[in-house]
Design goal:
- This protein has 481 residues and is mostly helical.
- Helix content is 85%, strand content 0%.
- It is built from 20 helices and no strands.
Length: 481
């Protein structure tokens, strides 16, 4: 059984990694091109609505996705019940957003948001049609078709968005891109999941799913508020231009850590659930995932933090330069995302959702307090406050995991000490390059190569690379080429 789970893990990890590298990579390419065509104000308008769409998705899913994945045995009755529940909630939520659109526009002092809200939020209804199919395929760890669906949706929607932006449609090119991405997914998911809902709504089935999932609604809401509170307050107290800078910095900052977080969450949660009865093996897997997460995300985040200015100048042009400092603070905070996600996945897999909720009840007031204090000092100070809160929550969640599994912060640091030394040496070498070279193109190329070379040499010398993972990559690489 252990060998079968390990095989599924590496297979799933491979496809989810490829999916997210392609999605994040292509998404970033399309986003950069759009950012060069459109104005910060266009991105700011969509950024103002992000929190409402994200909150809507939390209520629509209501933790049902996690419940379907976590439940030991799921039947068509469970899937169909969840499907119709999602649709009813999505229609209710959209009606509220449609009626509340004028209030949203008034809150932000931006009249254009009224129509934008009514059109863009159609996406919450469209998205509800594929929640169950995605959960079913994730549960079965069928990540190859998920990769194809996501990639196809991204390419089609982004090409249309770029054409519209080039033709002068402005913010509406972003709206159409978002809606079209979901529409393509809605068409493709039934074809690949081979599942269609039956006209069934079972009360007993719903209550079992609800008992697990409902406890995640509060944490989901808090998570959305925590991640988007800065954007809300920037939009409320500053102009859409500042929101554009903040959201653009946020999207760039989330590329490295967000990639690894998505990959690990997609694979680690179903895997932790499968081995939840074997605590020793679960801890072994957890430690291994955590070590490799730090090993990979650390150098990427350090490189991007130090190379943030030349990166923005080369990719986005000088008009986006004000987002550099914001991006640097957010990048450092996002370095902790994969660790936090792995910690919460471990807690959820053993059914400890109450402790999972308590973490968010602590994080929410800390985030709100930090951002409120930072508002008068500008958007850079708000970004710095999120970094401090991320650090505090990392320390706290690590301490809780230590109490449950006997693997706390001090043991983590001891295991990661050579990674930290490698990152320090890489940062010093890269900083020297930035002092010597002034051209932003050369800073990116030479600095990136030198920094990566120093880190890889350190990994080799300190024996940090996981031989089994490297071997699995070599075996699977021909399948993807």
């Amino acid at each position: 059984m252990e060998q079968d789970i390990k095989s599924k893990f590496f297979s799933g990890l491979s496809w989810v990694f490829i999916q997210n590298v392609l999605l994040k990579g292509l998404g970033m390419v399309f986003s950069v091109i759009l950012a060069r065509i459109l104005s910060p104000e266009d991105f700011g308008l969509v950024g103002m609505l992000t929190v409402f769409i994200s909150l809507s998705q939390v209520f629509i899913e209501s933790g049902i996705t996690e419940a379907l994945i976590q439940k030991p045995d799921c039947s068509d009755r469970d899937y169909s019940t969840a499907f119709f529940f999602n649709i009813v909630v999505s229609l209710t939520v959209y009606a509220l957003l449609f009626l509340g659109a004028p209030l949203i526009a008034t809150f932000y002092h931006t009249p254009e948001l009224c129509l934008l809200t009514k059109i863009l939020c159609i996406n919450v209804v469209l998205g509800s049609l594929i929640i169950v199919q995605r959960a079913k395929m994730t549960r079965a760890m069928e990540f190859r078709p998920l990769t194809f669906i996501s990639l196809t949706s991204l390419i089609i929607s982004s090409v249309v968005g770029l054409v519209m932006a080039y033709k002068g449609w402005g913010v509406w090119s972003l709206v159409v891109q978002t809606l079209l991405y979901t529409c393509v997914s809605v068409v493709m998911f039934p074809l690949f999941s081979h599942w269609f809902p039956k006209w069934i709504f079972d009360k007993n089935s719903f209550m079992k799913l609800w008992n697990y999932g409902s406890r995640l609604i509060v944490t989901g809401v808090l998570n959305v508020v925590i991640l988007n509170l800065s954007s809300i307050l920037v939009g409320r107290y500053y102009k859409s231009r500042q929101v554009g800078f903040y959201t653009r910095a946020q999207s760039l900052a989330e590329v490295p850590a967000g990639l690894l977080t998505t990959v690990l969450s997609s694979v680690s949660f179903p895997m932790f659930c499968k081995i939840q009865d074997n605590r020793d093996y679960q801890l072994k897997v957890y430690k291994r995932i955590l070590f490799n997460a730090v090993l990979i995300v650390g150098p990427i985040a350090v490189l991007l933090t130090l190379l943030a200015k030349p990166l923005v100048l080369v990719l986005l042009t000088e008009k986006w330069l004000p987002c550099v400092t914001i991006m640097q603070f957010l990048l450092l905070g996002r370095m902790l995302m994969p660790i936090g996600a792995t910690n919460t996945n471990l807690l959820r897999s053993v059914g400890n959702t109450s402790l999972y909720m308590k973490l968010y009840f602590i994080e929410a007031p800390l985030t709100i307090l930090g951002i409120i204090i930072a508002v008068p000092f500008g958007v850079e100070a708000m970004a710095f406050s999120t970094l401090l809160v991320s650090l505090i929550m990392f320390l706290l969640s690590s301490q809780i995991i230590g109490g449950m599994f006997g693997y706390g912060l001090l043991k983590m640091i001891a295991d990661w000490r050579m990674i930290f030394l490698s990152l320090l040496l890489m940062a010093l070498g890269l900083y020297g390059i930035l002092i010597v070279i002034s051209n932003e193109y050369l800073q990116l190329i030479v600095g990136g190569l030198v920094g990566a070379a120093i880190y890889l040499i350190c990994c080799k010398c300190f024996h940090l690379l996981d031989d089994e993972i490297v071997e699995q990559i070599r075996k699977r690489m021909p399948k993807f080429i």
